[in-house]
């Protein structure tokens, strides 16, 4: 049984739900050492998918764990000043801007997820504080999702399903089922996910090329395009795996999409604002392309998207990369391995430098 303690004027309070901003300690199971280590690990995460009781238990074996599930009343500067390792993730608060210059204790921020700009400011990157995220550890989830969408479009799975279960209701099928064999596949953004998509698709014998201005030397077996114009003009399929930044926002336009051949396939599992949504909807209405879309500009209301009215688009509501328990385990294990490495003075995985931060969503 795990006990929950609250700091309250130095006394131990009963195991109840913590009030907003209150500090919570999780004690190890009976039989484990109760000795507090010198390392203070502060967890600023309320998301219960990311931070479970088991995860906190494992952190307790590495140091003293302070877990905050709310922070409206917290003095973040004071909390960070008393922390050696900070754990953040989805929904964590934006950290104070001037802290790295004043910092004398905090040495490592372990960000559980990928996108971090809503929590970790640029001033933390390249400072005395090391910063990591989940890196390539979870790339398989989005790569699998992109491939699932691609095959769903190529094989016309929604149309085939509809024709089986509703044989008397007509459903528009404007082209035959197709194979990936010999198809020209263009990858926009050759980061962790883009590289994994290529690796996973290789057994199906497509012809690969990519556009990514940050890549200086093309990987073996892949042609590098030096403009988006060439990427879209020379591929039957384009799949987006770039981060969202100033350079990529709104970069996929009607002009570029129209360069693809009739019946081409466009896949986006990256970020919605990379694509000019009304331009994609326009070319889909013209029946020139087919699309598999997991992300849009306004994901709070998918039905308001012009793509929702396009019968030649498969929409998956930013859920195609969901992995359930497996993803949770990978996220937590990646963080624990890095935290252990930091405590024992070993190299960290997935360190974020200024250039990587600049290119991130």
Rounded mean pLDDT score? 89
* The CATH architecture of the largest domain: 3-Layer(aba) Sandwich
> What would you give as the CATH superfamily of the largest domain?
NAD(P)-binding Rossmann-like Domain
CATH fold field value of the largest domain? Rossmann fold
The percent of residues in helical segments reads 25-40%
Q: Termini separation (Å)? A: 41 Å
The CATH C-level name of the largest domain is Alpha Beta
Question: Into how many domains do the coordinates divide?
Answer: 2
Structural class designation: alpha/beta
Q: What is the N-to-C order of secondary-structure elements (H for helix, E for strand)?
A: EEEEHEHEHEEHHEHEEHEHEHEEHH
State the helix count. Answer: 11
Uncertain residue ranges: 1-36
Computed over alpha carbons, the radius of gyration is: 24 Å
What does this structure look like?
- This protein is α/β, with parallel strands linked by helices and 361 residues long.
- The chain folds into 2 domains: 4-137 and 326-354, 3-Layer(aba) Sandwich (Rossmann fold); 139-315, Rossmann fold (3-Layer(aba) Sandwich).
- Helices cover 27% and strands 17% of the residues.
- It has 11 helices and 15 strands.
- The protein has helices at 53-60, 76-81, 99-102, 139-154, 157-165, 192-201, 228-233, 254-257, 277-285, 325-343, 354-359; strands at residues 4-8, 11-12, 24-26, 40-44, 64-68, 85-88, 108-111, 130-132, 184-188, 207-211, 223-225, 237-240, 264-268, 289-293, 313-315.
- Strands 11-10-9-12-13-14-15 form a 7-stranded parallel β-sheet.
- Helix 1 links the parallel strand 4 (40-44) and strand 5 (64-68).
- Helix 4 crosses helix 6 (192-201).
- It is elongated, with a radius of gyration of 24 Å.
- The chain starts with a strand and ends with a helix.
- 36% of the residues are buried.
- Residues 1-36 have low confidence and may be disordered.
- Keywords: NAD, Oxidoreductase.
- This is D-isomer specific 2-hydroxyacid dehydrogenase NAD-binding domain-containing protein.
- Residues 147-319 form the D-isomer specific 2-hydroxyacid dehydrogenase NAD-binding domain.
- InterPro entries: D-isomer_2-hydroxyacid_DH, D-isomer_DH_CS, D-isomer_DH_NAD-bd, NAD(P)-bd_dom_sf.
- GO terms for molecular function: glyoxylate reductase (NADPH) activity; hydroxypyruvate reductase [NAD(P)H] activity; NAD binding.
């Amino acid at each position: 049984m795990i006990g929950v303690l609250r700091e309250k004027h130095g006394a131990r309070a009963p195991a109840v739900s913590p009030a907003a901003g209150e500090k919570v300690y999780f004690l190890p199971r009976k039989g484990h050492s109760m000795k507090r280590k010198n390392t203070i690990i502060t967890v600023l995460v309320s998301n219960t998918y990311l931070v479970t009781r088991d995860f906190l238990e494992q952190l307790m074996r590495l140091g003293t764990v302070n877990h905050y599930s709310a922070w409206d009343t917290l003095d973040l500067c004071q909390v960070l000043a008393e922390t050696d390792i900070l754990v953040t993730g989805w929904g964590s608060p934006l950290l104070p801007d001037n802290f790295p210059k004043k910092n004398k204790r905090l040495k490592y921020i372990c960000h559980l997820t990928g996108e971090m700009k809503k929590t970790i400011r640029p001033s933390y990157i390249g400072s005395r504080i090391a910063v990591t995220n989940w890196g390539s550890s979870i790339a398989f989830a989005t790569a699998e999702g992109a491939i699932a969408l691609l095959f769903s479009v190529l094989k016309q799975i929604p149309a085939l399903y509809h024709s089986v279960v509703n044989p008397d209701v007509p459903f528009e099928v404007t082209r035959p089922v197709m194979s990936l064999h010999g198809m020209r596949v263009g990858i926009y953004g050759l980061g962790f996910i883009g590289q994994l998509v290529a690796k996973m698709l290789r057994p199906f014998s497509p012809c690969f090329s990519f556009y990514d201005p940050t890549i200086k030397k093309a990987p073996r077996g892949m042609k590098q395009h030096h403009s988006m114009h060439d990427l879209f003009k020379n591929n039957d399929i384009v799949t987006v795996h770039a981060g969202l930044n100033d350079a990529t926002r709104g970069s996929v336009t009607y002009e570029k999409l129209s360069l693809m051949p009739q019946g081409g396939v466009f896949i986006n599992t990256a970020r919605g604002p990379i694509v000019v949504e009304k331009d994609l909807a326009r070319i889909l209405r013209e029946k020139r392309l087919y699309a598999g879309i997991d992300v849009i500009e306004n994901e709070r209301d998918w039905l308001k998207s012009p793509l929702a009215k396009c019968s030649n688009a498969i929409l998956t509501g930013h859920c195609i990369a969901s992995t359930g328990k497996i993803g949770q385990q990978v996220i937590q294990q990646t963080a624990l391995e890095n935290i252990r490495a930091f405590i024992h003075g070993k190299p960290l995985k997935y360190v974020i430098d200024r250039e990587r931060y600049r290119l991130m969503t």
